């Protein structure tokens, strides 16, 4: 089939592009042409702004059977897609998110029918509105719609997307590698399930032209879900580092003392959640084939080849490429984590002394 992939060079979509070609599909990617991601030579490329009002006219010359949209983030984005593809393609596959679900959840694992209101975040609310618009188009026969909901996805791309308590960057990798303590929210026994991008990408390929997936929604994410404590131990093993020095600080304390640094924690990290992927297994042949330590080693190798995990001295003195942009690399994140740990240890030690006295 001829598949039009909107995006095509991001963390997940680069893997989707490669797997579509390997599966024998004709592939065209549509983006602004600003990425240097490596994709197969056979892939056609159309330059267009996915979010521009002229997107439907720019994409009109492409005659595809299936559209995979990695860049539909809101109801207005969904409407642009409907304007562009209604009556012109057989199937439209939308990338959504598990953020559409209400959390904390009523029970685990979370199935596709779990309550969506209120969604976890503003991002989730916008994705939910986009889902509704796309499914309404499906119901009136504009095209067959399939919606995929990934969770946290990582892989050898950009900064690797290996999350930590304060978000996504390589600060924790450097600290773990160098044997420095790291902050862990709560007692570290909450659950966190990263899934490698190649496993997530396989579900997109499995959905293409798959009539069982028409009109359906799928969770496509980790089935093996470690605790945060074990997650950091896996990072340490992948870095050939000693067992990490985990400093547990209550989540509420972190939200209070660092509101400008805990957006990820507030919306995602604090929730202990698992997701039911049995439907994706049944219809899309989904399987989590890449064990976490193997996948993290792949990311670490990728980052080390690019000197993306630097020493503290390097971070003070050098510049680096961050998410495709050259900018000075600051030690601010390291200093924040170090200062927070020192203050917490001082205060808890003082509390223990006062209480015992």
TrEMBL record:
- Describe the location of the NAD-dependent epimerase/dehydratase domain by residue ranges: 3-220
Residues of the region (Disordered) are: 308-333
Q: Where is the composition biased (Basic and acidic residues)?
A: 308-330
Query: What SUPFAM superfamilies has UniProt attached to this entry?
Result: NAD(P)-binding Rossmann-fold domains
Q: Which family does it belong to?
A: Belongs to the NAD(P)-dependent epimerase/dehydratase family.
The protein in question is named NAD-dependent epimerase/dehydratase family protein
Which organism is this protein's natural source? Halapricum salinum
């Amino acid at each position: 089939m001829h598949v039009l992939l909107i995006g095509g060079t991001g963390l997940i979509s680069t893997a989707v592009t490669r797997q579509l070609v390997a599966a024998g599909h004709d592939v065209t990617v549509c983006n602004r042409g600003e990425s240097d991601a490596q994709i197969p030579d056979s892939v056609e490329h159309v330059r267009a702004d996915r979010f521009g009002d002229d997107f439907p006219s720019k994409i009109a010359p492409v005659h595809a059977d299936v559209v995979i949209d990695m860049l539909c983030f809101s109801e207005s984005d969904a409407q642009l897609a409907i304007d562009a593809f209604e009556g012109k393609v057989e199937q439209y596959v939308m990338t959504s998110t598990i953020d559409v679900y209400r959390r904390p959840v009523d029970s685990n694992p979370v199935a596709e029918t779990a309550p969506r209101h209120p969604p976890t975040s503003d991002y989730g609310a916008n994705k939910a509105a986009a889902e509704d618009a796309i499914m309404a188009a499906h119901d009136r026969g504009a095209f067959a719609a399939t919606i995929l909901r990934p969770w946290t996805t990582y892989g050898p791309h950009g900064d690797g997307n290996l999350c930590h308590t304060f978000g996504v960057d390589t600060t924790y990798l450097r600290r773990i590698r160098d044997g420095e303590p790291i902050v862990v929210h709560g007692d570290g026994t909450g659950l966190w399930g990263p899934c490698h991008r190649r496993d997530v990408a396989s579900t997109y390929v499995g959905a293409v032209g798959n009539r069982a997936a028409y009109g359906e929604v799928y969770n496509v994410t980790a089935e093996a879900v470690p605790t945060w404590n074990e997650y950091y131990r896996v990072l340490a093993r992948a870095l050939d580092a000693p067992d990490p020095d985990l400093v547990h600080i209550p989540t509420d304390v972190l939200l209070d003392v660092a509101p400008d640094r805990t957006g990820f924690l507030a919306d995602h990290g604090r929730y202990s959640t698992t997701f039911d992927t049995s439907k994706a297994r049944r219809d899309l042949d989904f399987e989590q084939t890449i064990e976490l330590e193997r996948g993290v080693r792949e990311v670490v190798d990728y980052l080390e080849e690019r000197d993306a995990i630097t020493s503290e001295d390097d971070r003070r003195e050098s510049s680096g490429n961050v998410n495709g942009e050259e900018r000075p690399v600051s030690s601010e994140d390291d200093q924040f984590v170090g200062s927070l740990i020192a203050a917490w240890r001082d205060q808890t030690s003082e509390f223990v002394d006062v209480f015992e006295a």
